[in-house]
Structures are given as C-alpha cells and as structure tokens.
Amino acid sequence: MFDCSRYYKYEELKSIVLEWENVYPELASVYSIGKGHRERDLWMLEITSSMGPEADKKPGYFIDANTHPEELAGSTVALYIAWRLLSEYGKDEMITRLLDTRTFYILPRLNPDGAEIVMTTPFYEYIGNGRYLPGDEQVGPGLHYADINGDGVIVDMRIKDKNGEWKVSEKDPRLMIQRKPDEFGGEYYRIMPEGWIEEYDGAEIIIPKPRDGNLNRQYPYGWGPEGEEYGSGDYPLSEPEIEAVVRFHTAHPNIAGAIDYHTNAGIILPPTHIAGKPVPFADRSLFERIGKMGEEATGYPVLSSEESFSWPGMHPRMGTATDYLYGQLGIISCTVELWDIHKEAGIEKDWYFSLLRELSEEDNLKLLRWNDEKLNGEGFMPWTPFEHPQLGPVEIGGWGGGKRLYMFRNPPEGKYLEETCQKNAIFALRYAAVLPQVAIKDLRVTAESENTFKLEAIVVNEGFLPTNLTKRAIDVSAAQPVIVTLESESKIEFIVGQERVNLGNLEGRSEQNVPYSRFFDRGTPAKKVEWVVRVSDPKSCVVKVRAVSQKGGEDEREVSLC
Length: 562
Hints:
This protein is α+β, with helices and mostly antiparallel strands. The chain has helices at residues 10-23, 73-88, 93-101, 112-120, 240-251, 281-298, 321-328, 341-344, 361-374, 415-432, 471-475, and strands spanning 28-35, 41-47, 60-65, 103-107, 142-145, 156-160, 166-168, 176-178, 189-193, 195-198, 255-263, 267-269, 273-274, 277-278, 332-338, 380-388, 392-399, 438-447, 452-461, 482-488, 492-496, 500-504, 526-535, 542-549, 553-560. Strands 1-2-4-3-11-15-12 form a seven-stranded mixed beta sheet, sandwiched between helices. Strands 9-6-17-16 form a four-stranded antiparallel beta sheet, with no helix packed on it. The protein has a four-stranded antiparallel beta sheet with strand order 18-19-23-21, with no helix packed on it. The relative contact order is 0.12.
C-alpha cells in the first residue's frame, strides 16, 4: 500500500521505487537516467506489461514532476500514478488495457538535489537545483536570506518606518495591508525577507537576485539567455537534470504524450503559442478536447492563453518543457499546476499567477481563516520582536513556519494531498488512453495459382490521436509514417507490391468529431495493403506482416500460404 497523503525525501523515494521493482518485476523496471549537481540520481520508473511488443515498441507516455524544488506535490502524484498502475494491473480493466498497449515512463523527481535542500533546511524559496547552496545563491551587497533568529525557518521582517508602504490591519493584527497612496499620519512599516545585509550603509537595502536557476527555462526549443529569461542558465541543457531528460526523450522516440507536474495554481496549461505564433487550430482543438477530460477529473480550468498565468507585460516563458515537447517534437503535452490555495480559501479570481498579484484585505483574511481552521494556525508565524544587529528593533514573522511550504506551494499532508493525487491520477490515465495504436485488423491470403498468392492486410489506427500526433509534428518533420513490411524466411518474389510499404500517417478518432463536412479534408484511420507474391515451396512458406508506427506502436500477424 502506498501512502499518498505525505511527502517523501530522497532516500525514501529511492527505496519506494526500488521496492516496487522487486515486488512487480513483470511490470516495473527502475533505473537512473542521470544525476543532479549534488550526485543524487534521477530515478525513472518504466512500467508496462509483457503483452504485445517490447516496451520501446509501444506508444510511450512520459510523466515528470518536481522540476522546481519547492513544488513537491508532483512527486507524490507521480508516485501514486505508478502505484495505481502496478497494484491494479489485472484487476482494473482500463489499467490492464493501458499497460498491455502502452509504456509509462514516470520520473517522480526531476530535481532531487533542490527538493532535498527545500525539505531539510529552513525554507529557501529560490534554491534552483543545488548548484548554489543556501547562503551561496546570492552575491554582492544587499539583503541575503538567513535565519537570523535561529528558529529554524526564514520568514519576513517588518520594520517601523514613517515612509513604509505597509500598515497593520484593524481586522486582524497579524495581517499587513497596503498603505493608501494618499495616507499619512499612521504607523507604517517596511517588509523584507528575514536576513543579513552585506555592506550595509545605513540607508539602501537591495535584495540581490538569487542565482537559483530555473530548470523549466533550460530546454533547447525557444531558449533565451539570462538577460531575456531569468534563470535560464548559461546555455540550453547546461544543467545536468534537463540534459538527462532531453537525452532520454531522444533515446525513446516512441513517447507520444506527456504531463509536466508543477504546483501553485490549480490549472491545466497546454501550449498556446510557438515561436510567437498561435498554435494551429487543429492542434488547439486537440488540446481543448484532452484538457476537457482534465477539467472533468480535477476541476482545474484549462487556460487558453498565458495571459492569466503571467503578470502584465511579461513575455511568454522561454525554454519550457511544454514548448520543447510540442514545439520541437510535436508531442501532445501539457503542464498541470497542482493545488490552488486561493480556491480552497474561497477566493474568487480570474487570474492564476499568484506571486505578484495583490490580494484585497478581505481575501487575505480568508487565507488567515483557512490557515487557522485547517492548519491550526501553523502556516503563519506570529510577529515576534528581535534586535537585528544592523537594523535595530524589528519583528520577525508572517507567512511561514513549518506549514507555509505545504499551504501556498503544495497541499498540506493528509486529505488535501490525497485528494490531489486521486483526481490527477484519473486525468493522467485518461490522457494516456488517447494515444495512437496501430493494429493489423485483417490479413487474407488467396491462391491465384499453385505458387502465386495474393495477400491483403488492413492496417488501422485504433487510437484517438493520429499517428503523427499533431500538425506541428508534420510542420517540423517530426512525424514518421506508418511502415508495413512483408517478411518470410523462405524466398519470395514480389509480383505486385514491395517488401516495405509507406502508408503515411493514419488518422485517429480525433478528426471524426462531426459526421461529415465538405469544408474540411479528412484523413482515414485505415488503409489496405496488397501484395502478389510467388514462392518456390508454398507448403513450407510462412509470411509475417508487420505494421510499425514510431508513436503508435507495432503489430504483427503471421499466415501460412499452404
């Protein structure tokens, strides 16, 4: 039994996946695809059954999580999906069908070093992948994050200042609210992170940008240099974690679908623009239909643009996993942002990027009430006087403490995390079911003479998606055609047809969303292949027909000519 109501440190996660390999050897293979900066392994769970073709010849479905170190919920969700697949194979009809026809590649922790730092040290919000350790990630003069009062957490400092931007709410003394633009005569404060000020001159306090590195800006497609995209690194794939993931994708061209788990918004983000241009209509329609399944399962809305997930004036994010998977490889992919504390607290909104959004006093009070009722107040540290060695009297407190990480960024342990796992697993499994699936529907042999035979095979795509997946895959020459071969250990002469036949791409059910329209060209999910062959000894001649699709898997049939 897997406990999906809690979070796991690196050694625990490692033990879990290796144990699953021992318990389910017929389904699970576990291996490292690389190491992080601090030499922790990136553990991959490869899950499929022995039915049908080998693992790399089935349509592949890729799941990764915990790219950003503090976004821990994705790891537990990914582990829960793996456990469901392993424990319910042979019991659940859908899961059995999925593992018989697909291969799941599940990377529950893409950033093992960064996650371990977050889970084992005072909460550093910007720590990247461990290239820079806490205390080293900021350089130069200014305020450096530090646990200056030694209570084991890093929160905020408030300092009385008649020119300050903040004041204490009259409705709850814990809450700091914005001073009005024309307000004077009250008691005001400045607020800044808890820390120590390097080269303090008694006046200016800047906060040096952390050299945190954002692994979700490291992918090769659409990458931008640091001046254009903060945290993008020295060059694409300069960080070992992303280099390992891209290398894995290159080595597994059967991957046809992907989910990238993040946290902090409760939304589903499909690609909306590629290279500054909107996603083609045909692909956008696919994303919307798949996203609808996600919305039904999770309650998360599907965003049709980045505008509601960005601050005003922000350019589209560059070098992300979804841009790479769709833009470069043409793979159907999406980012799922798990958990939305604002929704849980009853805050209505039409935006989803919370980091730089100003909440009203009433909305902040709702967050405090939720914290008091659901976390016993542990997500907020009371303002406590402290004599700062440089600033003099300050108060340290605010959102933080042992539960802050498990309130804003992640669901708290217990029922909230468990519910997050359960509903997202439903979407992940339904998502995997839409992949293309090539099959040989019929194979017939007709004798035309004693040594001459006609063979007919119907090759069909039984999946929802086409074998090329997307229009984008065609545009970037990432779509490989379906190839049908006729083979025999006996010598055969082809009179009609060839040993290797290119069928192009086969549509799935995705294009059959209306009975008929003269305004749109429609592909076909099935094609017939015909051969006429002459053999020297038909009594001993067995021929094998094989249909191969890079994204839609393989199927083969044998028939005797006698």
